[in-house]
Amino acid sequence: MSTFGAANYRNVLTGKDGMLFITGEDGVNIELGEVDNFEVQVQNNGTDWQPVGDLLQYDIPTGITITLTFNEVVVRDDVLINPYLEHLNNGIFSLFAFQGKLRSRPDAPNSREERMIFKNCSPNGATTLMNLSPGEIVRRQWSFRVNAIPERIISML
Questions:
Q1: Measured between alpha carbons, how far is 68 from 145 in angstroms, rounded to an integer?
Q2: Are strands 18-23 and 29-31 parallel, antiparallel or unpaired?
Q3: What's the whole-model pTM score?
Q4: Which of 46, 80, 115, 128 would give a disulfide with 140, using CB separation of 3.0 to 4.6 Å?
Q5: Which CATH class for the 14-45+59-156 domain?
Q6: pLDDT band for position 6 (50/70/90)?
Q7: What is the distance between the alpha carbons of residues 103 and 19, in angstroms, rounded to a whole number?
Q8: Alpha-carbon distances of 132 from 36, 143, 149, rounded to whole Å
């Protein structure tokens, strides 16, 4: 069995090979090292249609919904919760921009870095402001609706 085939272990990526960034108001990407997991999902939406005389019911695509969710270990407040609360106090809904990065090992065949850019992200659903339990790490749970089609950038290393 060859270690250089399609199942080459050097091509397998894990969570340590990724990172989440937030783009600050000045356009600089800030590493969110306090995020221990994140997920971006696309939901394909459709409506059912069944023509008269047809046994089959069809799905007619109508749009997509993209969500970004993550848990933040509370280390600093300057990049997420402070701007969010400041905007709310001024009657403004916050919009954020994020980047997800995934980088393969430098010694892997066809080594590369992939970035996905998520723009116009608005907080969606419940946002944890405070969640305290004795002996536990303090975390905030965030959920965002991504209001732009993600951009994918691949660079060969």
A1: 6
A2: antiparallel
A3: 0.84
A4: 128
A5: mainly beta
A6: low
A7: 9
A8: 18, 19, 36
